[in-house]
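Hi R.,

Here's the input for the iron/sulfur cluster complex you asked about:
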Amino acid sequence: MPQYHQFDAIVVGAGGAGLMAALHASRSVKTAVISKLYPTRSHTGTAQGGISAALGNLEEDHWEWHAYDTIKGGDFLCDQDAVEIMCREAIDAVIELEHMGLPFDRTPDGRIAQRRFGGHTNNITKKPVMRACHAADRTGHMILQTLYQQCIKQNVTFFDEFQVVDVLVENGVCNGVVAVELATGEIHVFHSKATLIATGGFGKMWKVTSNAHSLTGDLPAALLRRGLPLEDMEFFQFHPTGIYKLGILLSEAARGEGAVFINGKGERFMARYMPTLKDLAPRDICSRCIYQEIREGRGVDGKDYVYLDFRPEVINRYFEEDGNPKRVDAHYLEQKLPDIIEFARVYLGVDPITQPVPIQPTAHYAMGGIPTTNDAEVLADETGRIVEGLYAAGEVACVSVHGANRLGTNSLVDLVVFGKRGGVRMAEYAKQASFRPINYDTAAKEGAAQLDRIRNNNGTERPSAIRKELQALMDDKVGVYRTGAGLEEALDHIRDLQARFRRIRIDDKGYKWNTDLMEAWELGNLLDLAEVTAYSALWRQESRGGHYREDYPYRDDTNFLKHSMVWKDGKLEIRSKPVRITRYPPEERKY
Amino acid sequence: MKVTLKIKRFNPEVDKKPHWESYTVDVEPTDRVLDALHEVKWSIDGTLALRRSCAHGICGSDAMRINGRNMLACKALVKDVAKDGVITVEPILGLPVVKDLIVDMAPFFAHYRAIMPYLVNNDPPPERERLQSPEDRARYDDTTKCILCACCTTSCPSFWARGEYVGPAAIVQAHRFIFDSRDQAAEERLRILSEPDGVWRCRTVFNCTEACPRGIQVTKAIGEVKEALRTGVIR
Ligand SMILES: Cc1cc2nc3c(=O)[nH]c(=O)nc-3n(C[C@H](O)[C@H](O)[C@H](O)COP(=O)(O)OP(=O)(O)OC[C@H]3O[C@@H](n4cnc5c(N)ncnc54)[C@H](O)[C@@H]3O)c2cc1C
Ligand code: SF4
Ligand code: SF4
Ligand code: FES
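And here is the predicted structure with iron/sulfur cluster in place:
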C-alpha cells in the first residue's frame, strides 16, 4: 500500500546543496529531506581541494576579482548577475560554515587558510591568487559532515534511502514528489507546497569519470518527462587529472601546491600553451592541451596519458624557475594532500612522493542542468516563466554561474550560496501558500507503473551491457573533442540503445532492496540525458569552454553567446535565451 | 585473472536463512573487490544486493567482511585479498542483515546521534571566523577523517556482545568535538560516554583501529576520551 506524507517543504538530495537548503528552510517551515543515499554518502563528500571566497586572508583579494575570474573561466557564458551574487555571498557563506564548526586548515594567526587553484587570479598582476579555503584535501567531506551535523542539531526530518522517481508537476505547478523506499519497495507520495531538487551531477553516462555510481541524473530526467527543459547540457567538464583508466580524481589542489604536468618527453608542456598561468590554467584548457600532447605523440611511452608530477624536488625546481620563493618537502605534501596521495598509492601502486602519476582527463562536472533564477526557482521556458513551487540548487541546477566551464572550488561555493538562497526562498513561499489538492492514487500508480514496467519486462537485453556501450560511446564521441559527424553518430547510437532498453530483462523481480531494478531505471535516465547532451552539442556550432567542436574550433559570439534550452516532449527541441551581461564584456580568453 | 567470490547471500523475500554462493569472474588483479562484485551482479546474477556509491573509499557505503576482515570493497584490490583465487564476502557483523551484503544501519546511526555530533558554541559568533591556532586545529585532525562506514564498530567484540555499546565510531565522533577548541559541550559528551554503555565497554582490543579504512587511530582516540574522563582534563 502506498504511503502518504505532507510537508511544507521537501528537499530531494542530501549533498551540500540539499542540506544547506534544508537547514534554512526548516528554520521556519515543516521540512523533510529525501535522499537515495544516507546523507553522508553524498558525492559532496568526495570534493577535495577547496571552496573559494575572497577572504583575502593571505594576500589581497576582492570578490569582484573572483567574479571576473569565474566569468572568464566560464568563457563568458555565465549570467553575470548570478556570478556577482555568488562571489559576494561566498564570503559570508564560508564564515557561516566556519561558525557551524567546519574544521578549516588555519593560517599561523588562526584564520582560515587559503591556497591557489586553477583560473583564480590577482586581476592586476594576472598571477594565481590564494583564494581556495580548505580542510586538507577533504574539504567536501568536511562540508558534508558539518552540514549534516547541523541538521541533526536542528532536528531536520530525513527519509534516508528513499529514491524519488517522479516529480508532481502539472500545469506549471509542483505539488511534491513520488519516491520508492528502497528497503521495502513501497511507494511513498510526498505532498508539498515547495520542492527543491538537489540531486547533484550525472557523470555516469561516461566511462572514465570522477562521478559516483549513484550520479545518474534521476531528477533532471524526470523533469524532461514532465515536459520541462534543461539548460546548457552540451557543457560538461572534463577534469584534466583523473587517475589513468579509473578516472578517480586527483584534485587541482595538487597543482595549487605546485604539481606540474609532464609529457612523455619530460617537458612541462603547459608553460608552452599558457605562459602566465601554466599548470593552473582552467580545466577545459588543460584537458585539451593534454590531448594535444597525446595526439602529437608526446604521451608517456606513446600512450594516451601524461604525468602529474608532484615529487617535492620537481615542485621546487619549477618554483625556482618561476621565481616563487616557496619550497615544499614530503612531509608538507603528506599534510596538505593526504587523500590524493593515498589514492595513487592504493589504486595505481604509485607513490607520488617518489614517482610521477599517470593521469588522463576524466568526466567530472555538469555545468548544465535544471534552469533556475538567482533564487533557485525552476524556469519553465526561455522567457523566464517559473514553475510555481519548484526549486533546484547545486550541481543539478544551471543558474548559470559556471557558464561553459566551471572554475575549481566554485561548485562548493555554488552549493552553499544557492542552496541557502533556495532554502530561504522556498520557505518564504511555503509560508504564504496553501497545499493544492492532488490525486494521491494517480500519483502513486504512475510512480509504481514506471518501476513495474521494468520489473515485469520480458525482453532479452541486459541493462549492464547497454550501460557499458553507452559509456564507451560517450567517452568516444561526446568527450573533450567533438565533431558534427561524430555527434550525429552518437545520437543514432543512443537511440538504438534506447530501443534496446525497451527490451530489457532484469533478474530481480522482488521488492525489498531491488538494486537490479533501480539500476535499470537509472540507466533509462542516463540514456535520456545522453540524448539531450549529444543533441545540444550538435546544435552548438562553436567551441566554448568545455564544449570543443573540431569542425567549429572558435568561439562565435555573434551566433552563440546564448544558453541552450532543450525539451524532450516526444521529440527533441532546442530554444535559446540570452546571456545576462553586467560589467564584464566578453573578451578573448588568454592566460 | 579468474577469481571466485564466495558470497553470503540472503534474500528476505525467499530465504529462511543465509547461505553461501560461489561465482567465478574474470577481473584484473588491480580491480577493486567492488568491481568484482559488480561483475557478478552485472553479468551473472542481478539479484545480488549491496550498497556502494563513490567507489574510491570516501562515501563509506560498502563496508563488508572480506576474508573475515572488515574493509570497504572499493578500497580492497583483488590481488591483495584473493587467497588461492578465492575471496569470501559477507555482511558486516553485529547489525541485522536486510538483504545479502546490506545491513540495517539504523542502530549504528542512533549511537552516532546520541553523542551530540555537532559543534556547540553559545557565544554570539564574531563577524569573521572564530580563530583557532594550527596546533589547536591539529589536535582533533585525525578524527575529522571519519566517514561513518561502521568498519570499526562492527569489528568490535564488545559491540558484538552488546549492541547497546555506543561503539568506536560514535566515540571517534565525540572525540572530534571534545578536542575542538571552539566547542563548549565536552562535559555533556563526556557524561554521556561515562554511562555503562559508553567508553568503558571498550576493552582495548585494537580491532577497530585495524579495520578503519581512513587510517584513524581509533583506539588512541578512545584512550584520550577515557583519559579525559579519568583526569577531568581535556588536553
Ligand atoms: C572527486 C571530486 C572532487 C571535487 N572537488 C571539488 C572541489 O574541490 N571544489 C568544488 O567546488 N567542487 C568540487 N567537486 C564538485 C562538487 O563536489 C560537486 O559538484 C558537488 O559536491 C555536488 O553537490 P550537490 O549537493 O549538488 O550533490 P551531491 O553531493 O552529489 O548530492 C546528491 C544527492 O542527491 C541524492 N539523490 C540523487 N538522486 C536521487 C533520487 N532519485 N532520489 C533521492 N535522492 C537522490 C543523493 O542521495 C545525494 O544525497 C568535486 C567533485 C568530485 C567528483
Ligand atoms: S579497542 Fe575498544 S572499541 Fe576498539 S575494537 Fe577493541 S573493544 Fe572495541
Ligand atoms: S572511525 Fe574509521 S572505521 Fe570507524 S566509522 Fe569512522 S572511518 Fe569508519
Ligand atoms: S563506494 Fe564509497 S566507500 Fe566504497
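One thing worth noting: The first helix of chain A runs from residue 16 to 25.

Cheers,
M.
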